[in-house]
């Protein structure tokens, strides 16, 4: 009698978040299915972004952590150099 039809639509989005605006990066996974893994990114203005469907989750997480570490080292060196020039 009744037939339920629904379609699945996949949309690829490109999101650009300046590293200077990233406050935290948190790995997460589904409690029901540990294979469903996510990365939560919180910005300085407390907006949350949840990303999933990575080709290589571990590599994506590693690259995010390295980018943030590089950013923090650069900020530390910049502020130290600014203090030295005063």
Architecture overview:
The chain is α+β, with helices and mostly antiparallel strands. The chain has one domain. Helices cover 33% and strands 23% of the residues. It has one helix spanning 57-84; strands at 22-29, 37-43, 48-52. The protein has a 3-stranded antiparallel sheet with strand order 1-2-3, with helices on one face. Strand 1 (22-29) and strand 2 form a beta hairpin. It is elongated, with a radius of gyration of 19 Å. It starts with 21 loop residues before the first strand and ends with a helix. The mean pLDDT is 84.
Oligomeric state of the chains present here:
single chain
Give the rounded overall mean pLDDT: 84
The helix-strand sequence is EEEH
Overall geometry: elongated
Class by SSE composition: alpha+beta
> What is the terminal separation in angstroms?
80 Å
Largest sheet: 3 strands, antiparallel
Count of DSSP strands: 3
With strands numbered from the N-terminus, the spatial order across the biggest sheet is 1-2-3
Helix content: 25-40%
Low-confidence blocks of residues = none
Tell me the number of structural domains. 1
With helices defined by DSSP (H or I, 4 residues minimum), what is the helix count? 1
Backbone CA Rg: 19 Å
